[in-house]
Amino acid sequence: MLVSMFGIMFSPFPATVVSEMARVLRPGGRLALANWTSSSGFGGKMSAVVGRHLPPPPQGAISPFLWGEEATVRDRLQPGFDAVETSVVAIKWELQRSAAGSAEFFTKNSGQLQLALGRLDAPKQAALLRDLEQLWIDNNLATNGANHTLISNEYLEALAMRR
């Protein structure tokens, strides 16, 4: 079995990723993927906020969130995999800290956000951090205290079998 949770989606070479997954799995081997969705999930909302602060991606760059779209996953896995099953899985992030504290914690511990911040000067970093904090505040579903954050998120689960 080969499992990727929020990993392969960040490769800039999806065809190579699929080829390698097919190479390392023997026929009948199972593949399990979890990839953030773009349109309705909190991960997509964070990406949109970050994207407003960064220069546009290079021409030809491929969004990692395409791995969160059922049609794209089915198409990408078609060369080497059968029995592709997909479903959107709802999850809740619950943190025992304020929404602002949760945003700070997540920002400090997310490699992708650290990379984005590293591409910005100090004033632009501060603006991005303010916008991310506001996103967490605006999306906090918790109603039981200032030191509690509850965020609704989702990912696309994809299961397949190697031909």
Would you give an account of this structure?
There is one protein chain. This protein has 163 residues and is of the alpha+beta class. It has one domain (2-162): Vaccinia Virus protein VP39 (Rossmann fold), CATH 3.40.50.150. It contains six helices and four strands. A four-stranded mixed sheet has the order 1-2-4-3. Helix 4 (99-109) packs across helix 6. The longest helix is centred in the last third of the chain and has 18 residues, at 122-139. The radius of gyration is 18 Å and the shape is globular. The model has no long low-confidence stretch (mean pLDDT 96).
List its salient traits.
4-stranded mixed beta sheet; 6 helices; Rossmann fold; alpha+beta; 163 residues
As for the CATH topology, it is: Rossmann fold
Which CATH-level-2 architecture? 3-Layer(aba) Sandwich
Q: Based on Cα principal axes, name the global outline.
A: globular
Total strand segments: 4
Strand order of the largest sheet: 1-2-4-3
Helicity level = 40-55%
Count of discrete structural domains: 1
Structural class: alpha+beta
* Number of alpha- plus pi-helical segments: 6
For the biggest sheet, the summary is: 4 strands, mixed
Q: Strand-residue fraction?
A: 15-25%
Order of helices and strands: EHEHHEHHHE
Quote the distance from N terminus to C terminus.
13 Å
CATH class: Alpha Beta
CATH superfamily: Vaccinia Virus protein VP39
